[in-house]
Amino acid sequence: MVYKPFYGLTFNPFDKSSPVKTAFQSEDHLEMQNRLSFLKDTRGIGLFTAPPGMGKTYALRCFAESLNPNLYQMAYTCLSTISVTEFYRQLCMQLGLDPGGKKTEMFKAIQDRVRYLMKERHKTVLVAVDECQYLDTKILRDFKLLMNQDYDSFDCFALIMVGLPHMNGILEKPVHEALKQRIVVHYNYCGLSADETMEYIYSRIEAAGGARSIIDEAAVRAAAGYCQGAPRIINAVMTNALMLGAQLKKKSIDSNTILAASNSLALG
């Protein structure tokens, strides 16, 4: 990409695959990390909700990469539009179990497996379900049954549910009351503030080896105003701005470049 050498960047600073070690420590990101850290030790259920593009899945990836594999095993799925049986098969495969057999057989095998890992290997299983707002009601109902061990005397694994804000409304339905009562940590994303957005943009540029001077302050403020605290939109606007800036030979990206980059993302 021509903009990288033009602006002295070693990689695209606004690519979602950027190293987690360079993750921006926003209030949302830190709150989710702290709550996940608490959940991995206490087990039970955690719910994290945010509008699209706020960085909740990225925060989950950062957390997963921080785990000691000798102490924790993460089972992650984002395929939430599936049947109960398909969900059990998917979970069995992630736990190294035979995904064949009936639902009742898989249910017992999963419970036995997570219990063995915890009691004998001192290893906690964390099951992360992304896009949880699409889960079938029957799967949500079975979650509390899966976690029931020894007459419901302890939680045998940690369940991390990540989804859109209307998941909160789904759990308000009477049919999910028992599941809702099991939630031990809950966080709703607020989005990046204007100041956080500015610092996010600068920190990403610096992480890629660039200087803050490649974008002027007015341009950063313009990006913050357009993106409304959504990292995914910020990344798209800034990537476009870097490409446009390089094409126009602008040593410092200005507000007009941000406007053009934003307009290029508009649909129709």
What does this protein structure show overall?
The protein is of the alpha/beta class and 268 residues long. It has 12 helices and 7 strands. The protein has helices at 3-7, 27-42, 56-66, 84-94, 103-119, 137-146, 166-170, 177-181, 194-207, 217-227, 231-247, 255-263, and strands spanning 44-49, 72-77, 124-130, 148-149, 154-155, 158-163, 183-188. The strands form 2 sheets. The chain has a 5-stranded parallel sheet with strand order 2-3-6-1-7, with helices on both faces. A two-stranded antiparallel sheet has the order 4-5. The protein is elongated. The mean pLDDT is 92.
Number of domains: 2
**CATH level-1 class of the largest domain:** Alpha Beta
Structural class: alpha/beta
Sheet with most strands: strand arrangement: 2-3-6-1-7
* Proportion of beta-strand residues: 5-15%
N-to-C span: 27 Å
Name the overall outline: elongated
- Helical residue percent? 40-55%
Task: Please tell me how large the radius of gyration is.
Answer: 22 Å
CATH level 4 superfamily of the largest domain: P-loop containing nucleotide triphosphate hydrolases
Number of helices: 12
Number of strands: 7
Rounded mean pLDDT score: 92
CATH architecture of the largest domain: 3-Layer(aba) Sandwich
Largest sheet: 5 strands, parallel
Which fold name corresponds to the CATH topology of the largest domain?
A: Rossmann fold
